[in-house]
Amino acid sequence: MSKRFYITTAIDYVNGQPHLGHAYEKILADVIARSRRALGEEVFFLTGLDEHGQKVQQAAQADGKSAQAYCDELAASWSAFVAKLGLTNDDFVRTTSARHKEVVQAILTKLHAEGHFYQASTEGFYSTKEETFVTEKERLPDGTFPASYGEVVKLSETNWYFKLGAHQQWLFDHIEANPSFIQPDYRRNEVLGFLKNNTLEDLCISRPAARLTWGIPIPFDPAYVTYVWFDALVNYISVPAALGDSIVRGATNSQPSTLNSQLSLWPADAHVIGKDIVKFHAVYWPIMLKAMNLPLPKQLLVHGWWQKDGAKMSKSTGNVVDPVAVIDDWGLDAFRFYVVRELDIGPDGNWTDTGFAARYQAELANGLGNLVNRSLSMLKRYRNGIIPPRHDELSADAAKAAADTIAHLRASELQKALHSIWILVTRANQYVDQTAPFKLAKDPAQAARLDEVLYNLVESCRVLAVLLYPFIPGTAAKIYSQLNLPGTPDKLSGAAWGGLPAGYAIGEPAALFPRRDSPKA
Ligand code: MSP
Fold this sequence. Notes:
seven-stranded parallel beta sheet, 47% helix, elongated, binds 5'-O-[(L-methionyl)-sulphamoyl]adenosine, alpha/beta, 13% strand
């Protein structure tokens, strides 16, 4: 049994409705998952929900529901969201599921038995919003704490702590020796700087059940539930354990009751996460894994945050992008294309409705859509839809686009891959203008030249469908179906020039991205 390419997203808190940030991260992971499958690899793509903790308990209370009923309701709408985005996830994890809780408890039991935890009492300042103790260092000059912490209260409490200190140097060395572990580089440097300049404080992994009930009970001390982040991070291995991954099962002593398969998943190849949760993934998670004797994930792929119109998205001010509304209005592929094309994985991005409409018009409607539509329509009109003999005038351009796209996809450079693909779109559109097939068609002496031009154009459209499949799978499938080709263009090996055989009859062309005047208000 070979190990699969295992990719995950962060698991979202269920205390609200999905927004652009959640959609973006999931689409990035989906494009990578689809490209790896298209490269011939076996893939496992995991996404899901983080359902425990104070935030969820409070949101449920405010809604007048039991926490479980509240989570069940929202889980249904988040699963529908995942489907709406066209994700090809292989599983959907919920941290309230038995299979997950069993593994969290098995790990806690094992690490406790091996002496990784101790009990201590602390007095400090606690942020309920972030469910964490805040330190004096974080005080602002005016004596208050940053607004992101919400209300900060003084609290004296006995809790369970996880010893981190002994692992600090090892973690630093690992990050330094493995440049691809945290990407992009500036995020890696931030973590290295943090580890160099701070002494790690031990991690509080429990919350007293007297104050928070909505969590996984600590198996060796029923007066406590598990800190939500310790619980949440484990999702990346609880699902592999439940699916029979032997590395995880061996290391965690977990014997989930639901075993019905035998997948080999761990270590993860990529955790796709936002910049705000790097510390949890780059510091706590590796140390948890090290304590369990498990290999570390190969990569943390850290994306930036979206703003709208230059300001933080916020429900209270109404400054939000509703991905479902955009998809209903413009189509799923227009949305998938825009978020990947507009924002490279790393920096922050800014959504504007006019920017979205401009890319739709220029790149999808006038660029790709126009190329496919006029190429297929001319073949229909001038050659009755029958593919002429093979001709290779654009084959080098197509081969370069394919090679560059594949290299970028292997490196998870999604925006660069789209750049490479669009070089071919632009080249083929120029080729129409340069060769002017509508003029050739009027001159019977140019019939052979027209055959050549049409072959190059229609075959370029086919290659584009293959290259675009990971990004805009619905459009890629439409191109294939308009070409009357069977199946979906879901293997990148299909990008090799010359796939369309002479004499083959294509189907009916139809607009891929209808032109629109302006975004609907
Ligand atoms: N539950 C934790 C993650 C646990 S992972 C073991 C969490 N949830 S979250 O719902 O707040 O965020 C989920 C993901 O969405 C994070 O990676 C976060 O960075 C991302 N985003 C949330 N808002 C975002 C934007 N405005 N823009 C881009 N991504 C953002 O954190």
